[in-house]
């Protein structure tokens, strides 16, 4: 039987389009592009990658010039994933000849009694990764642009760095096409008809047929999955991404060893990067934002409680305390969205009825760096192969409302 909301007798006939693909991937953000690339290159699948907008759009979570890549996680399962993600990023760079990553080292600062600090050290120790600890005095001596009072400790990861987000996504898509993949931009999905052969009906009435389906629709996942009877507690959050002028740029330059940087109290979380995309400007933002009722309301909310000036005032207070060599007003404010789960871990799972339909969503603002291994995991999952990583932290059953 079909779950409520899915009709076994579609109301209007659709126009069948050509062959039946081995796999269709819905959503060409970084997770969908990675999955499509891995399926085409490593699994020799005939894959179509569908995107409702143009391939390089700014409506989701995968655009922009920079993302942090790091091993620094208190959860050992993420560290295990990153140990596989780094070589896959290197593989993509080697295949394409593109420079996707800049190693800068990474610093995460905690109050001395923060339990996350101990958990992060344990994760590094468990996986045999190098790190060092810096006291507040050592932070202040080593990094002119940071200020910390007594009672703080930072963990330094020499393998952290910056990914060029736009180039990473574009390169994934380009390599996917080289391996026989088909991209379909401007293809908005009207409905999905699951079955042994899945039919994806587009707004223009065309029907895409596939044997297996991967849904990586980002902020649109909640509504799309609900039409298939899967209800997930996903919350769209609009983030203001701020860039601040450094009167002395060398203080925050990666060429002068300023690292990617995270300030974590356990309750509040700020992140910064060395000067990279805009000359003389440091990317510094809060890792939280304003919840919106749906992705379609993200622009409306810009004119209400989530105004850039309110967020900028909060970050300016942080600057006074911890990054005093920056100006107090942002020079550039851009936006993106996070799609968050209650526990801030993503959901990667198989549909409870149709095992040829899988999905990955809810990456909660920290999934970009993991994209190549996520693509591998979703590929293995949709093909019915043993998954190379522990999937238990990501299963939908942890949320009771995810059941049909």
User: Which oligomerization state do the chains in this entry correspond to?
Assistant: single chain
Uncertain stretches: 1-12
Please provide the count of β strands: 20
Element pattern in H and E: EHEEHEEHEHEEHEEEEHEEEEEHEEEH
What share of residues is helical? 25-40%
Specify Rg, calculated over alpha carbons.
22 Å
Spatial gap, N to C terminus: 12 Å
Summarize the main sheet. 9 strands, mixed
Molecular shape: globular
Please outline what is shown here:
The protein is α+β, with helices and mostly antiparallel strands and 404 residues long. The protein has eight helices and 20 strands. The protein is globular, with a radius of gyration of 22 Å.
């Amino acid at each position: 039987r079909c779950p409520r909301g899915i009709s076994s007798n579609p109301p209007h006939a659709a126009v069948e389009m050509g062959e039946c693909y081995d796999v269709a991937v819905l959503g060409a953000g970084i997770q969908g592009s990675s999955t499509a690339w891995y399926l085409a290159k490593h699994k020799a699948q005939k894959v179509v990658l569908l995107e409702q907008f143009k391939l390089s759009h700014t409506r989701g979570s995968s655009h922009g010039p920079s993302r942090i890549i790091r091993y620094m996680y208190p959860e050992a399962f993420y560290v295990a994933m990153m140990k596989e993600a780094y070589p896959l990023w290197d593989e993509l760079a080697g295949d394409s000849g593109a420079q996707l990553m800049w190693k800068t080292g990474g610093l995460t600062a905690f109050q001395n009694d923060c339990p996350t600090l101990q958990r992060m050290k344990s994760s590094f120790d468990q996986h045999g990764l190098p790190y060092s600890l810096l006291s507040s005095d050592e932070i202040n001596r080593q990094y002119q642009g940071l200020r910390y009072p007594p009672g703080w400790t930072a963990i330094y990861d020499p393998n952290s760095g910056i990914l060029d987000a736009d180039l990473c996504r574009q390169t994934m898509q380009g390599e996917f096409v080289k391996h026989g993949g088909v991209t379909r931009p401007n293809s908005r999905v009207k409905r999905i008809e699951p079955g042994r052969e899945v039919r994806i009906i587009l707004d223009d009435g065309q029907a895409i047929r596939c044997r297996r389906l991967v849904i990586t629709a980002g902020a649109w996942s909640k509504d799309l999955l609900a039409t298939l009877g899967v209800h997930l507690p996903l919350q769209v959050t609009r983030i203001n991404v701020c860039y601040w002028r450094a009167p002395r740029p060398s203080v925050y330059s990666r060429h002068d060893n300023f690292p990617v940087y995270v300030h974590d109290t356990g309750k509040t979380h700020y992140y910064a990067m060395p000067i990279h995309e805009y000359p003389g400007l440091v990317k510094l933002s809060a890792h939280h934002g304003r919840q919106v009722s749906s992705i379609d309301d993200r622009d409306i909310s810009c004119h209400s409680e989530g105004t850039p000036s309110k967020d900028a005032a909060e970050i300016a207070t942080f600057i006074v305390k911890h990054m005093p060599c920056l100006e107090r007003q942002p020079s550039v404010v851009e936006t993106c969205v996070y799609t968050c789960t209650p526990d801030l871990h993503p959901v990667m799972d198989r549909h409870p009825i149709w095992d040829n339909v899988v999905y990955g969503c809810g990456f909660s603002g920290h999934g970009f760096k993991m994209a190549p291994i996520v693509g591998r995991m979703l590929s293995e999952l949709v093909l019915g192969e043993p998954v190379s990583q522990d999937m238990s932290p990501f299963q939908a059953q942890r949320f009771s409302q995810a059941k049909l």
